[in-house]
């Protein structure tokens, strides 16, 4: 029937006075225009029907996955399938007498089919990715990396298929050649392969999630992870700059992930006051009486002084020299004061490690280190809490007749 219609149009053109050659070309042009117009309107009708149906289903369904399919234009790509298939079927009918041209057009249409399939797969995967990101259990996972891996394989298969269509060589022969040239391919896709391995290890070992705060000194990164892809990890620094880190660097180099701190009950404060050794001494009874005016350590001084006096009396200790027997020191009382002050501080987490420790003496002095945890883990609030604590401690030192070590600055005398 198709051939009869083709001949009918061809015969009509010849009878109209055209030569056979001109009639053949004009016949082909008319049939092509008719086929393209029919395909265009068919595509438009199918798209409108699919869009209407998909929107209705998206509104009625309980899941929002179909919403992402519509947003990523999956129904639009599906609508292209039937018109494209129709054109493939019409090629032999329209190109009678033009075998070589028909062969080229069929190859072109088949290549379009492969490209359409690739874009359809790409947008379906993108919809899956968008949908999974709405789920809390997948929100911090590097789903972009896995989608990129699937698409790399899809594009490789698609490109080989296109070459097979154009050259009319079977696809499996391309894969045979691929095995022979695997060394070259590995070199070309080295970064992608390393990125794939790194993405899998990062995900399995739960090393980094989207939203984690990481510090990576080698790449100058200090901020939140906003994206994990096959090749790179994107970090938004706290100054709002963006640092891109190779994914493989996460398993080959050392970096700091602050997630443990963020998920814990507090953020660590670890800072020391350097006490001048010259200001450290034993306390006399007059000193203790003066220190008892400090309410926070008054109970401690009363109890401790009574225990020390009882011990010294029981052992007949000669207290003409302060070094004899047991004694209180100003740095020891200050250490107790700092500990009690931290225990009473509202911004310090009492359920986590809290101590004030004396470190080994240095040429500069004796470090008295505060080791505690701020209840508020937000950076700006944490810095405020730590500054508030050390403001108070620095101001409190003179009350214990202690001094902070400072490097002497030579005075400038005279003028040139």
Automatic annotation (TrEMBL):
Residues 191-259 form the Mechanosensitive ion channel MscS domain. It comes from the Bacteria. One of its GO terms (molecular function) is mechanosensitive monoatomic ion channel activity. GO terms for biological process: cellular response to osmotic stress. InterPro entries: LSM_dom_sf, MscS_beta-dom_sf, MscS_channel_2nd, YbdG. The keyword DNA damage does not apply. Keywords: Cell inner membrane, Cell membrane, Membrane, Stress response, Transmembrane, Transmembrane helix. This is Mechanosensing system component YbdG. It is a multi-pass membrane protein. It holds the Pfam family MS_channel_2nd. The chain crosses the membrane at residues 25-50, 77-98, 104-125, 146-166, 172-189. SUPFAM superfamilies: Sm-like ribonucleoproteins (SSF50182). Its main location: membrane. GO terms for cellular component: plasma membrane. It comes from Maribacter aquivivus. It is found in: Cell inner membrane.
